[in-house]
Amino acid sequence: MIEQLLRTPFTDLVGVRHPIVQTGMGWVSGPRLVSATARAGGLGILASATMSFAELEQAILEVKGRIPDGTPFGVNLRADAGDAADRCRLLIDHGVKVASFALAPKPELIARLKEHDVVVMPSIGAAKHARKVAAWGADAVMVQGGEGGGHTGPVPTTLLLPTVLDAVDIPVVASGGFFDGRGLAAALSYGAAGVGMGTRFLLTSDSAVPQAVKELYLGHDLTGTVVTAKVDGMPHRMLRTALVEEIEGGSTLRRLAPTVRRTWEFKRDSGMSWPQLISDGRAMRRTQGRTLAQMTLAANTPTMLKAGLVEGDTGAGVLASGQVVGVIDDLPSCEELIDRIVTRAAEELGRARSYVL
């Protein structure tokens, strides 16, 4: 385990040794991966959207039991969830350092977290969104370019990142397309304060994803992902598999019955009541502008991701993935990965400095 080689506004803000974030991936970013990242000096983030309230509390306690006292880690939350305020209270009560959000949390929620020294870091996909959450008091933002896995946008990181950096003066973490030290050095050169990585951490020995599924990921090249809106109604980057090709070619009517079934499965797995599910659906429609059809399709995502990433059933599940899957060929531990990324980034930054007259 290496000592700190790079100090940025993000490492100062969060108290981590290295400016690397393991993002909150549903069914992937559990206590095992988060604690391994935290012990290696990065910021591990628990994915709570696929957890019930009780499961989230248990996961937080498990992470704390696996890491030295005071080691920072984070939790990713759905800002539009009906129990978002209660989950934030959970973070406060257990001393979680970072609250990350896939959507912008309300100003009052940001203020409440900041009152208790919780760092608020929403994920954003446009400069205007960064300006909005910064004005509301967010401490940092994570920006994901189109290369990233899961829900993503059309603009590549190299174009999106500069616009966000020009828009705000809080630390910006760049994600989408990062996997090695050269990428970290490039992001820092742009002006970012760190990088976030999802697929690269999924493909580590500390990830709980089944080995056969990891091998499937490693077998894909740079053309091995596709962005489709037919799984849950929103653009979603995932591995190009036979199932995804079938979904892409299927009609809305053919997808209706499986969608209804998966809605029932998600209700069962999440422990949510029908009123809670309906309330969250309404919030999704209000905050994200989704149509009724898109909200219905959204029930596909948790159960289909679980089938692939937890149960290893790639014939019934989908596998979210960034384009970097095409350049990854090994499964290091989180410590090995972070050490080599930081070491290489420091070398590259030193080399670049030699070009300055």
List the helices and strands and how they pair.
Layout (H helix, E strand, L loop, with lengths): L8 H6 L5 E3 L8 H9 L3 E5 L5 H14 L7 E4 L6 H10 L4 E4 L5 H9 L3 E6 L2 H9 L5 E4 L5 E2 L5 H11 L4 E4 L5 H10 L3 E4 L1 H4 L8 H8 L6 E4 L7 E4 L2 H8 L2 H19 L3 H15 L3 H7 L1 H10 L24 H20 L4
Parallel strand pairs: 1-2, 1-9, 2-3, 3-4, 4-5, 5-6, 6-8, 8-9
Antiparallel strand pairs: 7-11, 10-11
Helix pairs in contact: 2-3, 3-4, 6-7, 8-16, 12-15
Uncertain regions spanning at least 5 consecutive residues: none
The assigned CATH architecture of the largest domain is: Alpha-Beta Barrel
Q: Helix- and strand-based class? A: alpha/beta
CATH topology assignment of the largest domain:
TIM Barrel
Radius of gyration: 19 Å
* Biggest beta-sheet profile: 8 strands, parallel, barrel
What is the number of independent domains? 2
Strand order within the widest sheet? 1-2-3-4-5-6-8-9
Query: How do the SSEs run, as a string of H and E?
Result: HEHEHEHEHEHEEHEHEHHEEHHHHHH
Query: Which geometry do the CA atoms define?
Result: globular
Binned strand content: 5-15%
Provide an overview of this structure.
With 357 residues, the chain is an alpha/beta fold. The chain has 2 domains: 9-210 and 329-353, Aldolase class I (TIM Barrel, Alpha-Beta Barrel), CATH 3.20.20; 221-320, no CATH class. It has 16 helices and 11 strands. The chain has helices at residues 9-14, 31-39, 53-66, 84-93, 107-115, 127-135, 157-167, 181-190, 199-202, 211-218, 242-249, 252-270, 274-288, 292-298, 300-309, 334-353, and strands at residues 20-22, 43-47, 74-77, 98-101, 119-124, 141-144, 150-151, 172-175, 194-197, 225-228, 236-239. The strands form 2 sheets. An 8-stranded parallel beta barrel has the order 1-2-3-4-5-6-8-9, surrounded by 6 helices. The longest helix is centred in the last third of the chain and has 20 residues, at 334-353. The two termini are 34 Å apart. The mean pLDDT is 89.
